[in-house]
Structures are given as structure tokens and as C-alpha cells.
């Protein structure tokens, strides 16, 4: 099956620093990648959608200058949390979509747990 | 607005059957997904329904009624490892997934 990896799986950083999270589709080409954030005991919240080679589309309320998304190739997307603050501590999950038939099924990465001190 | 409703929490007994319901109101419909998510892990795909009816896959089955905006996930022969959150998600007219808040399923021995 389609495999998506994320790196790092967890990260602890100081307030004010920037953190980069990588999302890779290992055995397929991802036409679209999605970035989610999940706070404890809450559902997934879509942050942004990115297509290879174009700018990401951010959901309402998500600061694009704070959460930088780069989708440079069909197998790699990165999310950079700039000037991280404790309220950015969350579980960040990426997913990748490969058009299959008439629907897009998203394959999820294992997630990255970010803790900002 | 777009809305997905599912119960917050359910409890069932090991070996029994449980049905998790999901109702939705979305702009367009391109399929409904069920995902399983264990605590601290990413969701894993369980099922996809785009036509009305029942899809069976081992111990898990998923049902869809598009006219009623309704789906359910049926889990048979429950095992302790089935304790997890079950997320219902609908693909709307733009193929964007609209997520429910998830149903936490607690399995008791």
C-alpha cells in the first residue's frame, strides 16, 4: 500500500525558534499533500492543501506567514513552523493523495508531535 | 455550512457488535471515509463508500445512504485492540475531506 513518512516524529524546541517537518510519499507520486493539526481529544483540523509546484491553499484562520509550506516535488512537502510559541504545540499530521479512479484517498503519515517550551 | 455528526463516545464489550453512526451535511458528495485512530497515532484508512449500500471488509462493514446523509461503521467480534477513535470524513464537491470529531470507542472485557 501507499506509504507516507514524516520526520521528525517528535520535536521539542524553545519558544521563538523555527521547526521544519518533512512529509514524504515513499512509493507513489502525491498530486496533493495536506497538512493537519490535531489538539488533544479533538479531531483533525486541516491547515492547508498543497499541490506540487504551486502555492499552498490555507484554511481560514491559519497564518500562512507562520506556517510555511513548500511542495517542491511529487514526493516531498515541508511544513515550517516559524517563531514557534507554546500554543503551537500540537500533533501535526500530513497526508498525501494520489488520484485513484474518481476519488482521492488520503494516506496519512505517522504524525509529528511538536512541543514548544 | 458543512457538518459531520457522530457520537462522542461509545462503550462496548469484547466479542460483541457495535455500530457507530455518522450523519453529514456537505456541499457536494464524492464519498465517505471511515478512519481508525489510536491515541497518539495518525489515522488509518478503514473504508470508503460512494454508492448506497453495505461494504464488508472482514470484521468491519460500512453502510451509506446518500439520500439520508447517513453512514454507519459496524464492528463485529470486538477485540480489545479495537479501542480507538473512529473518524467519519466526507469528500465534498472539491474533493476536500470534511472531518467529524470522531467517536471514541471503549472496549471492556
Give short descriptive properties of this protein.
heterodimer, A: 117 residues, mainly beta, seven-stranded mixed sheet, four-stranded antiparallel sheet, globular, B: 109 residues, five-stranded antiparallel sheet, 11 strands
Brief characterization of the structure:
Chain A is mainly β. Chain A has no helices and eleven strands.
Topology:
The complex is a heterodimer of chains A (117) and B (109).
Chain A: E1 4-7, E2 10-13, E3 19-25, E4 32-38, E5 45-51, E6 57-58, E7 67-73, E8 76-81, E9 90-100, E10 103-108, E11 112-116
Parallel strand pairs in A: 2-11
Antiparallel strand pairs in A: 1-3, 3-8, 4-5, 4-9, 5-6, 7-8, 9-10, 9-11
Chain B: E1 3-5, E2 9-13, E3 18-25, E4 32-37, E5 44-49, E6 53-57, E7 60-65, E8 70-75, E9 84-91, E10 97-99, E11 103-108
Describe this structure in words.
The complex is a heterodimer of chains A (117) and B (109). By secondary structure, chain A is mostly beta strands. Helix content of chain A is 0%, strand content 56%. Chain A has strands at 4-7, 10-13, 19-25, 32-38, 45-51, 57-58, 67-73, 76-81, 90-100, 103-108, 112-116. In chain A, the strands form 2 sheets. In chain A, strands 2, 4, 5, 6, 9, 10 and 11 form a 7-stranded mixed β-sheet that branches. The radius of gyration of chain A is 14 Å and the shape is globular. Chain A starts with a strand and ends with a strand. In chain B, the strands form 2 sheets. In chain B, strands 2, 4, 5, 9, 10 and 11 form a 6-stranded mixed β-sheet that branches. Chain B has a 5-stranded antiparallel β-sheet with strand order 1-3-8-7-6, with no helix packed on it. Chain B contains no helices and 11 strands. Chain A binds chain B through residues 34, 42-46, 49, 91, 93, 102-111, 113, and chain B through 30-31, 33, 35, 40-45, 48, 50, 87, 91, 95-97, 99-102.
